[in-house]
Amino acid sequence: MALRMGGRRATSADIRKLARGRVDNALDALRDSSEPHVSVHRARKCFKEMRAILRLFRPALGRRTVRFENAWYRDQARALAGFRDAQAVIETVEALEKSVELPAQQDALRACRHTLAVRRDRIAEEGDDLASSVAQLIEELEAARQRIGRWPMKADGADAAVGGFERCYKRGARTLRACHPAGDADSWHAWRKRVKDYWYHVQILHPLWPPVMKALQGELKTLADLLGDDHDLTVLDALLQSELEQLAAEHRQQIHDMIGRRHAALRVPALRLGLRLYVDRPETVSRRIRGWWDVWREESAS
Q1: % of the chain at pLDDT higher than 70
Q2: Beta carbons of 59 and 155 less than 8 angstroms apart
Q3: pLDDT digits (tens, 9 = 90+) for 95-112
Q4: Disulfide: which of 167, 220, 287, 299 matches 199 by Cβ 3.0-4.6 Å?
């Protein structure tokens, strides 16, 4: 199911349908055992989308429900993180290989990729049985799906979403101000999470004004990809310092230097794009979303 409001039913029904769609997509992914790390990645993406739904519709669902459900889906995503993250960092090295040309750099990255593959296989052998963990999660997700029908609905119409949108937008603007090209990784990671919320929220609200939302969604996807690549490099750099002692010191230093240059290449355009996407004051954005919502609902009713 697409991450998008329907508009031809009550807002409460739309919220529940969106939420059930995320659970159903996660269940479909987890029941596909052909490529476990791909299935886990798809399920974790559904959990992120669910958490964005909870944040957007916080005024309707209430703080207690949002706090409980957000923590539950966060914990499920973390429980699945180990093997998938071990594979993801290898993909980061492969992407970095495509951005360099010198033979010495390629040699260092090939050695790193081999070391990380050995690490991934060790984690898979030492970790809990993935199949049993997934089977248990499927049972718990089915119960979580039933909970959706009992969610309270304390607001309707634009009131169900506008406050949540403004709250998340404001947090994104605040975390953006803390980011600088040579800034600390925590600030950039915090902004990345808020940009992902912004991106998901625009997808959900796409029907309010499809041509405008489609363009905004595309720019947010570009920004989210820049920040995602930046975060992946940060994770790789941390591993170089903490776990990959068997990799030659010369290779670790070469890769660290490559990461530093790649950070700069990603962060400068990310900041420029972010300043455009967060140029409005939160209350201005809130009024705009409310106005678009009202027009959209009138059109849907006619």
Answers
A1: 98
A2: yes
A3: 999 988 899 999 999 999
A4: 220
